[in-house]
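My current task is to audit a protein record that another person submitted. Please read both lines and tell me whether the tokens look consistent with the sequence. Do not assume that whoever made the record got everything right. I have pasted the whole thing underneath without changing anything:

===
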Amino acid sequence: MLAHLRNNLNRHIQVLLALLVVLTAMPIGFLWHQSAVRIVHHTIENIYQHASQAVINHLDEFFTDANKVYEHQERIQSELSEVVKDRTALLHHITNVLNHHDEIDYFYFGNMEGGLLSAGHQGNQRYFLIETENGKAGQLNHFESDHFGSKGELINSTANFDVRTKQWFQNATKVTYPVWSNIYAGAFDPSLLGITLSKAQRDDNGKLLGVWGLDLTLNTVIQELSKSKLSEHGDVVLFYKNQVILASTSESHQPKGGALTKISHSTAPILNKLINEDHNKGNSLLLVEHKGQEWAGFITDYTLAKSDLVKIAFYSPMTDFAPELVTAQRVAILLTIILVIIAILLGRKAAGHIRTPIQSLTQAAEQISQGRWGSQIAITRDDDLGTLAKSFNKMQHNLELTIHKLDSQQQETKRLNALLAQQNQELEARVKERTQALSTANAKLQQMAYFDALTGIANRRYFWQQLDEKCIYHRGWLLILDIDNFKHINDAYGHLEGDNILKHFTATCLAVLPEKCLFGRIGGEEFALWLADLSRKEVEAITQTLLTALTQTPYRNDGISVVISTSIGASRCTANPQKSYAVADKLLYEAKLGGKNRAVIELDD
């Protein structure tokens, strides 16, 4: 099919025009799409920046409202010195403050005897009264209540409560201004985390009467964050720099067992990716992939309660923000397809004008190829195709004359070629026969010149020639092996068995020696071995393997069993092989004197 397409001019023209349109339309569509993506991303980034500023403003108002309570109390400081001494007046003041400040969850006073009186609420439906018995340290009771602080049903109690041991109480006694505490778990509900703003109450003489405290729970912070969610599937998260979530609109991020959630790939995968992407980028749009979906996020800094630096993160799936972006992608693809179809139709029409004369030329050429030399093209156009037709007809006439002339010459050429082919075949047969004979003779000569006729390994001359060449470029070891008691073996079993024992010795050695060694027979029962540069320990291991193999592989033939052993002298092979041979031969002599069937190896320098 592809070959047909390549050879079809009509299709060729259509495809070229389509490719031209595609190559033009695709960059335009791509640039248009990229521009639309940038606009959408920039818009989302601006939305996030405005949203983050709105959250910061909300939180600032949220925490500022707590400070306003103490600013008001500062103006009635003398009156409060008397109020804290009377439980009824104190409860009235606490509930009054609580009812005028919805963001405050609990407001209370702890006296210098360890007692606590507190009122609080959850939303606008449920109120609580919390106080110690007799206004002193002791049992702390938790009651249902109303917005006036009336004592209702007892919910639960805590024994041995002393407000003076609490960190928020102790922190306030050290300063004269309101001070924020760290986040801590509630006394009755450990899963309810909060933060306290406390301030000491002193009389006109500076005597410490107790400490005021007001609580803001994380549930209230979450409600503030929920107001700033930008999409249905998005979330807003407030977290410490150590990646501990302080508050979040996501249920999966809520504290468990009084412990804040740590950001990780398993607890908050999208937020974890945004944090990794946020390094050194500042307040800018962040894009991450999660489960095949693209998410847009934004992270900014916020100082919580004037002491803790935290971060605010917004994130939502791109599908919540930019369904029009998907539509733009589809329009770009559709526009490109339409342009390609138009190009194909135009190409087809243009190709039709060219196809008719081309087909006439093709038919005439096909007839000529079949031997009908008189075929002419009847085209009278004055354009380039008409000129081509006239040239074709002239070429056809000249071709016909040339073909007739070539036919006669071809017959003669065939006769001469047949004669030449016969002579070539005879010559090739003789050459092949002589070449095979020479190869066989050369192989025999090489075998006789370089290899020992009995054992098939290198002979003395070839071994020393190869050793000289190897010592020029490589360091190594030269080992001289001499079969022990070989003269006695020859005398005992005859020279024929002696030759067989030499063959057996050679085969046993070759079976255990390294592949890249040089092994040769340099005398009657004397052999030489060259090994590449190895450590002395490795050479010792090879010689031991060889001696063991000879011991374990005796020569057997027709009832004869002979255990062969050898003595070995090994020296380092230098650029002077003759000197190395002298050393190895001396060490061989030592091996013989030492009891034979052993190797003596030159010591390292």
